[in-house]
């Protein structure tokens, strides 16, 4: 489902118990210097990630200061704070302004809050310009986060250069049938550089010959509950998307690649390392 960009006024874009992706949660919070946003999501663990700007985060008695120091998602690395299931968190803007992504996954166990700094990210770069699949990934809550996490995976993904494909070969993760596939709901928020850029998000149900194609622009949100879902950036534009994966029965992601196109795994440099990093 494509959700066009709009002013969400700090209210969830994908709320709890969403009809399409009930396992996932997504909010964008915008603050100016000195403003505070109080955040609690019963039944969901969350991760707070400044897209730009700097915030202080309080989770119960824990205090995390100077989270985020970049002026935009295309400049520098992210920082984040993990907020346990249902915990109350206060976000206070300490820069001139801040835009904050809040990612969540349904879970029932309560762990300890922790921070993620740029030195603790898990970086992956794979693909090539020749195969039009060159991209880099910054895992914020990836394979080995600095604290315990239940079902939530959070990453930033970039096309490298101007134009190219992502999420290719086509893959899906809508059915729990391990070890071949896991069920993870997924939410993207797209950004482009320059901001006038655009791309296309494909969504084809399993067993169907054709699917839908959605025109995505700067600020588009896309919720994926099922089907194969590659996307592509138009030539001349760098594409970014903030990625939330929420597992039904486990945190590691096992992607199932479309059998017609799975052979291309052997043609894309480094893609097997990328696949392994989500597990």
Task: Give an overview in words.
With 279 residues, the protein is mainly beta. It has a single domain, classed as Sandwich (Jelly Rolls), CATH 2.60.120. Helices cover 3% and strands 47% of the residues. The protein is built from 1 helix and 23 strands. A hairpin with an 8-residue loop joins strand 11 (122-126) and strand 12 (135-141). The longest helix has 7 residues, at 271-277. The two termini are 26 Å apart.
Q: Brief description of this entry?
A:
3% of the residues lie in helices and 47% in strands. It is built from 1 helix and 23 strands. The mean pLDDT is 94.
Order of helices and strands: EEEEEEEEEEEEEEEEEEEEEEEH
- Structural class, from helix and strand content? mainly beta
Radius of gyration: 18 Å
**CATH superfamily (homologous) name:** Jelly Rolls
The CATH class designation is: Mainly Beta
Q: What is the tally of beta strands?
A: 23
Overall tally of domains = 1
CATH topology: Jelly Rolls
Percent in helix: under 10%
Strand content: over 45%
Major beta sheet summary: 8 strands, antiparallel
Shape designation:
globular
- The appropriate CATH architecture is Sandwich
Mean model confidence by pLDDT: 94
Number of helices: 1
Unreliable residue stretches: none
Distance between the termini: 26 Å
